[in-house]
Amino acid sequence: MSYFANPRFSRVALxxxxxxxxLGCGPQFDPPxxxxxxxxxxxxxxxxxxxxxxxxxxxxxxxxxxPKHLDAQGNPRPIQITWDSACVNPPGDxxxxxxxxLAQATLAQLGTGDQFSVTIPTDIIHAxxxxxxxxxxxxxxxxxxxxxxITPVVPTEDSPLPFACKDPNSGxxxxxxxxxxxxxxxxxxxxxxxxxxxxxxxxxxxxxxxxAQTFDATCVDASCLTLASPxxxxxxxxDARCVPICADDGDVQKCTGYxxxxxxxxxxxxxxxxxxxxxxxYGRAYDEEMWIDYYAxxxxxxxxxxxxxxxxxxxxxxxDTKFYAPKDAGPIQVWAVVHDNRGGVSWEGFTLxxx
Amino acid sequence: MARxxxxxxxxxxxxxxxxxxxxxxxxxxxxxxxxxxxxxxxISGAVIKPPEPAPEAKKAVIVLPKLVHFENAPYPxxxxxxxxxxxxxLKLSIDVEGNVSKAEVMEPAGNGFDEAASAAALKFKFxxxxxxxxxxxxxxxxxxxxxxxxxxxxxxxxxxxxxNLSGVVRIxxxxxxxxxxxxxxxxxxxxxHELVTDAAGKWQLEALPAGHYKVHVEAAGFxxxxxxxxxxxxxATEATYRLAPQSQGLEFTVQGERPPREVTRRTIERREIxxxxxxxxxxxxSLQNLPGVARPPGLAGLLIVRGSAPMETNTFIDGSxxxxxxxxxxxxxxxxxxxxxxxxxxxGNFSARYGxxxxxxxxxxxxxxxxxxxxxxxxxxxxxxCFHGMAQVDLIDGRLMFQGPLPAKDWSFAVAGRRSWVxxxxxxxxxxxxxxxxxxPVYYDYQAIVEHKTHxxxxxxxxxxxxxxxxxxxxxxxxxxxxxxxxxxxxxxFYRAQALYETDLSSKVSSNSMLSLGKDKVGFALGTFxxxxxxxxxxxxxxxxxxxxxxIKLDAGLDFLVAPYEVTVRxxxxxxxxxxxxxxxxxxxxxETHQKSTAFRPGWYTEGELQPTxxxxxxxxxxxxxxxxxxxxxxAPRIVTRYDVVKGSADPEHPSLRTTLKGGAGYxxxxxxxxxTDPVFGTPGLRSQRTMHYSVGVEQELTRHVDLSVEGFYKxxxxxxxxxxxxxxxxxxxxxxxxxVIGLETLLKYKPDARFFGWVAYTLSRSVRxxxxxxxxxxxxxxxxxxxxxxGSYRLGRGWEFGARFRIVSGPxxxxxxxxxxxxxxxxxxxxxxxxxxxxxxxxxxxxxHQLDLRIDKRWQFRTWRFSSYLDVQNVYNNAAVEAxxxxxxxxxxxxxxxxxxxxxIGVRGEF
Lengths: 355, 912
What we know:
The complex is a heterodimer. Chain A has three helices and 22 strands.
């Protein structure tokens, strides 16, 4: 049972108990659904499980919701997006084993922009430490979004990342408000495949239900990367997507909550996958686990994360959340990012308004 | 098994001896101010089992302690004014020199009687009990009575035709006077006179008309005597009456036969267990107040002993290992206090009886069923054969216990059960927090005992177990850890069918056996992760104790474990303590292992007990353990020694306070954890971790009631399991880890008396590890530099008792995040969550913990039953104690998780 003594488990358990009000706990932070800074919301791989030699295309959904996101002229500040795919099969398949490799990336392994492609080495697959699991490999793709300039730095024990984000004018280091770095792991198998969740209907249109009315999604997956400034629903009288502002700025205790959920067909094959590795290797019939992260650039969601599919009990219809209006009027961009537990991700956007 | 074998002569002492010492209290008002004109009066000491023919081979020459000096207790003035009388039942511990080393109030009477009686008893002087001519320490029950005599009972002037009648009452077979015996003299006219024997066991009636009289003498615990006496005019008639003990009586407890054999053995008495604030009277939670035991974090039900990991301390119930000690959250222990006879806690340098563990030992003994009969509940106990019951409920759980005799001679039983009812209020809390509750958290435990006990053997069959379970569906996963969503189920359960047999094969050979068969089940499932363990452990222990020669005793035993098991684990490989955070669970594919096998771990041990002088004791021991699963044998020599620089004596003419030096050293082995040797998760072929324990210390009696003990300890750890990436990039485990723990434990203890108990415990320690040669040394997560506990409980009178506990403890260790220019965390795209970038492991200490707990008890005593209630308030001043650091979703902001706020707990209890 020493497993449950490890720090991550303890931290998560403590957070859970706090959430359940079983401990005294500390102050509440802003929920992750509230976008108030430069954020990466999702990175999608077109092949969540790849094959050796495949080219995997990655797309990044990001949003600069920082109060500083407009420059003095009212133009969006430039955001530098970079990619580094130099890490393959790090020790223990752990991301921190990649740090030495990242600094040695060749030009071909680097990229910029919202999208990036990586070619999986043909010799990536190796035997698993688990004799029941098939041979596999892991390719790590690191990325960063920086409201400045990404600069290589010498890693130290107290600062292991080999790069930093600096203000191009002052040279000052930029922190978490203006700089996000992360990674995506591509698992490579000979046989296994996985699909990203599908959020559209047969006409490739996504939908949201808001206050019991169904509306078209503003965008789905790649179309969201080039999304123009949203139209304010409050500009159209009687539009149900327009809600009153709340002086308490999305406070879940004081503001009115509005039901919101993306329309997801749980019967679609991509949304009803089994955990094939568990089933084939161990004869264990598990569903793929899925959940939804909700985001909004104004206002708030509670809860910010909802379970969509449980590994044991299957699809859950009660994946709706509640939206709480901001204190300022204007259009509100809402995102629903759907994950599965095998690296699959899809998203769709929706526009609300407050007045 | 930790139970001290009772040698045959001592068992004979139990059954063959009659001890009754009785002296009156001195006139409580010697200056004559009493308006009642009280006179000295007293009453009998209690006695035990009658002489029974013992087997020839087991006969030993037993001489009982003989009271040679009786100390009169002053009558409590307030009680005297109120016209109160009382009997205080004491348990006197009499050392080998005949001094009363301890006078414990078994049945308090309140109103100042308890203090007066126990203070006086400490000044008694006995000729020590002996066995085969050698003094032995014993404990005897003693009833000290306070009675008032009307002051206006001056005798009538003698008539010329009268005579006097007097007598002395003694215990049959001894010259011990029976104090407080009731004497009824029936006159010719039918008129009766009642008297009570005095401190010398005497009584007297003067100026009786000459003639024939009936004299009836009775005393609790003795067979009454009726005798005819003739009084002649002008003469004094004297007679001696010898009362034999009744066939059933209080059990004569022999203790001190086995002086401490360990460097450190902590014991907590029942009264202390039940009254320590902040523990709700829970026995095993009370252990956390002892030196060497760290404060566990938050609601973790962990026992951290001398800087060792919790899994390095094992818990036994009468020698049978049990997988858990606390129900979930550490709310309460898996055996209720009411079913406990003893808790032996060894924080280090423990006996060779115990193996396969390198931290500490807790050996819990279940009680023998209580079948004593109480004329008034809790007052006196001269007969057995009665039933008792108990019911208790508090905010956490409810419990029942029933015990009594069985129809067959010498057989008795006890059954008990407990069920939590937190589910009643926790279910709505969980549901309001966005979970669908399939099975709300609930625990229960149960115990059943059937026992046959005679003067020289004890057979006890038990069945006990515990079950904790809950199952919920978390529909709102944590943003920080999306894997913490979906179906979450958790369950731990175990049961044991256990048989104990203890007997004396001869006056020199004793035999203790234990056999238990049970089932352990641990299940945890979260989404696609799971852990299931199902094992059927069979434990067998057998020990022979042989007295080889005077001063030399040898114990030898075997300790076998056979455990068919089946385990399934499906999890991402866990990081070891000190390793960087591997990222959200959901971002890492699980590995799975399924093992079905039989663990076979036999152990053999032998231990000597040498007493070169009456002050010096040496206990060398060796233990050999073999583990078939790892195909390794561990040989562990150990030695402990104790030396009384000054032997304690309560002799008022030659008082002395005990000073004892002690020390020990030895090897202790800890087999690797399951996942460390598993072919999927670990590396087969790992060896046991070896820990060398060293300890030295001193025990000093400061007063008869106050002891001070100071122990320094050092643990040198080699062969600790560690891991590192191999040439192929996979992590493999090795035995290259090293470490050490050094510390100092201090315990200043006021031993329980009629009013008060309390102690100050302070532990200073440092626990470090190194993952391999050349690797940096770091503090372990269980390091706790300072731990100060001050507690006490005081009986206010009229059934009220008030207690307080205050703790100041070093804050828990924390691993800080890295420094700029690095970001504090990386976004893990596959999880939609962040993985913190951590700095040096456990390099930051969180703020100091301090907490005050208070407890108030009130007891109502009725004739045949007792009702009590308590209010136990934890964290009285609502200190927001820091338990951990908490972060926002991307670890850019941090704050503290705080522990439990002020929590009042109320309980009520009835017992008969």
